[in-house]
Amino acid sequence: GAGVSQTPSNKVTEKGKYVELRCDPISGHTALYWYRQSLGQGPEFLIYFQGTGAADDSGLPNDRFFAVRPEGSVSTLKIQRTERGDSAVYLCASSLGGQETQYFGPGTRLLVL
Amino acid sequence: KNQVEQSPQSLIILEGKNCTLQCNYTVSPFSNLRWYKQDTGRGPVSLTIMTFSENTKSNGRYTATLDADTKQSSLHITASQLSDSASYICVVRRAGGFKTIFGAGTRLFVKA
Asked: Rounded to an integer, what distance in angstroms lies between the CA atom of residue B59 and that of residue B50?
């Protein structure tokens, strides 16, 4: 595709529910990042994939958060037992390599009621 | 304390005027520094990137400077346009790793 796409664009869920957020990176980009952005703040790093493996998951806040990239392309961020504090915009970015320019998707706006 | 601090938090200027946004960082060791523009409801878009040896980098009406000794960067916008209204985010990458550290951004409003 022409750019990074993310689905859904908006997600409203109830406290305690499970959600999955999807990211389709730019074709051929081996590096993929997930970020979380709260209102009025810059993006906060969550996890970085190089290919299929998570090269750095130090930003995941706790074990309720998990991400996969089984075929080295599409990635899914999974949040279990959602809490109201998880409400934020979840951004995905991809790049040709780990040191290259990151291209961001439009984000998924998650609201936990 | 955030390792990337930006000022001002927000700024309002008239169309056609110039402005300068500031970024101070403590990230070490340093790899590179980028400025991103983020329109409301969109993902950030890279404007400039500078490494340790670069002092200035231009992209159209945007000019970024870097002083690696004082760990300061600035983004200068010339002849502002209404479409420049956005958040401008300073991002620093630590050498030897993949993690990038984002500032909180400066929210710029350009008025007609």
From this structure: 12
Token pair recorded at residue A25: 């990176």
**A89–chain B nearest CA distance, Å:** 9
Residues A91, B98: C-beta atoms closer than 8 Å: no
CB contact under 8 A, A93 and B45: no
Q: How far is CA B16 from the centre of its chain?
A: 20
Chain B residues in contact with A102 (beta carbon < 8 A): 46, 100
Among the partner residues B45, B89, B93, nearest to A42 by beta-carbon distance: B89
Per-residue pLDDT of chain B (112 residues; tens, 9 = 90+): 569 999 999 999 999 999 999 999 999 889 999 999 999 989 999 999 999 889 999 999 999 999 999 999 999 999 999 999 999 999 999 888 777 899 999 999 999 9
Tokens encoding B33:
């520094």
User: For residues A20 and B52, what is the distance between their CA atoms, to the nearest angstrom?
Assistant: 39
Q: In Å, how far is A105's CA from the nearest CA of chain B? A: 5
Preceding amide of A8 cis, omega within 30:
yes
**Interchain proximity A43–B102, CB inside 8 Å:** yes
Give the span between the Cα atoms of B102 and B56, in whole angstroms: 20
DSSP per-residue string spanning chain A: --S-EEE-SEEEE-TT--EEEEEEPPTT--EEEEEEE-TTS--EEEEEEETTEEEE-TT--STTEEEE-TTSS-EEEEE-S--GGG-EEEEEEEESSTTSPPEE---EEEEE-
